[in-house]
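From the thread on structure requests for the teaching lab: each student submitted one protein with a one-line request. Submission from student K.M.:

"Model Flagellar basal-body rod protein FlgF from Celeribacter marinus, tokens only."
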Amino acid sequence: MIHTALNSLKNLHDIRQTTAQNLSSVDIPGFRKDLPNEGGSGFIEAMNTASARVMNLETGKAGFSDKQGALRQLGAQTDVAIMSEGYFFVQPKQGEIALSRRGDFSINAEGFLMNGAQELMLDEGLQPMQMPAFSEFQITENGEISVSPMDGPAGQFQAVGVLGTTSARGEVLTKGADGQIRRFDGTVPDVDQQVTLVQGALEASNVDPVEELVLSLDAQRQFEIGVKFIKMAEDIDRGGAELMRLPQN
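Reply posted by the TA:
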């Protein structure tokens, strides 16, 4: 009984961690809801005989929901949202190239295009996109970027590059220990430019805060039941020991 309860508490701990991560990321543009790890059952064996002790086993890396988040029309010309399946290519501050849905763009001090997580946005050749100083910014639905330079005539635009995207169709993706989206082997899909973009909008996180709060409360109640179950097992064990105790003169 105690073994079963402790295993249940361990599983609830993992679920609560996932729920807490989702709730803390509700306001992050393009965030993808984390899902619990897939798992199976493991039986403890002694002398080649299965015992009554069964453990839940996590297999593989954690998955995430690819459900489309709500689009918010905020009007900023450097806000870009993905309207279809797919991802931007980004270069995190540390680690290898990864995928992202985050489209709140800005320009850093060196003139490179980056998102709100300070990740460099990559072009179709998977190189950081360096931008000239501009007064206006335009991006087509297939990722072609053009700007009106600060030192040029008003209303005249020049092409500066193509934002790298991938539809990632048929790919199995996961979030690594750094929270970045890649394939299971740490690589990323090829650039295919089959993603549809829209300017002036941001995709919100696909986390439903009400659902996550309900899951959190349910996990808390189950945790309390598990603790009570351990106390019950202790009482039963103590009662059994007293019954088996030999009478003393």
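TA comment: The longest helix spans residues 209-244. Residues 71-203 form one domain.
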